[in-house]
Amino acid sequence: MSDVRLSGQSEMLRITLHGDGARWRLQLSGRLAGAWVAETENAWRSAPVAGKPVEIDMRDVTGIDEAGRCLLQAMKDAGARFIAKGVAMEALVEEITRKSARRSRA
Question: Which end of the chain, N or C, is surrounded by fewer C-beta atoms within 10 Å?
Fold first, then answer.
């Protein structure tokens, strides 16, 4: 497990990687926005996930900007599965999943 914390003026994102041998989970807590999007992408791309399912746990995400939304779309297109709670995050996951399904049919 590894942990990255970035703090800004009043916003913080905590990125935690969990691996159990069979799969990897990237747990996000806080706002996925601004410079934190690049840090999240670095954590995701550097995780040793070759051939293992990846889960993105967004249950503690409090907000996402457009760059964060694009990163989540890239993660979904690469096969990631999302865990979300709350109306807004569940709607976002549904939207991203629909876009990925349309792209794979095209």
Answer: C
Listing DSSP states for 45-94 in one string gives HHS--TTS-EEEEEEEEEEE-HHHHHHHHHHHHTT-EEE--SHHHHHHHH
What is the chain's mean pLDDT, rounded?
Answer: 84
pLDDT the model gives residue 106? 57
Per-residue tokens: 106: 């095209």
Note the pLDDT tens digit of each residue in 28-44: 999 999 999 999 999 99
Give the CA distances from residue 63 to residues 13, 22, 85, in Å, rounded to whole numbers and listed in that order: 10, 29, 12
Q: What is the pTM of this model?
A: 0.82
Q: Are 62 and 88 in contact (CB under 8 A)?
A: no
Instruction: Report how far apart, in Å, the C-alpha atoms of 7 and of each of 12, 27, 33, 104 are.
Output: 4, 17, 12, 37
Name 1's Cβ contacts closer than 8 Å, sequence gap at least 6: 16, 17, 18, 19
pLDDT at residue 8 in the model: 46
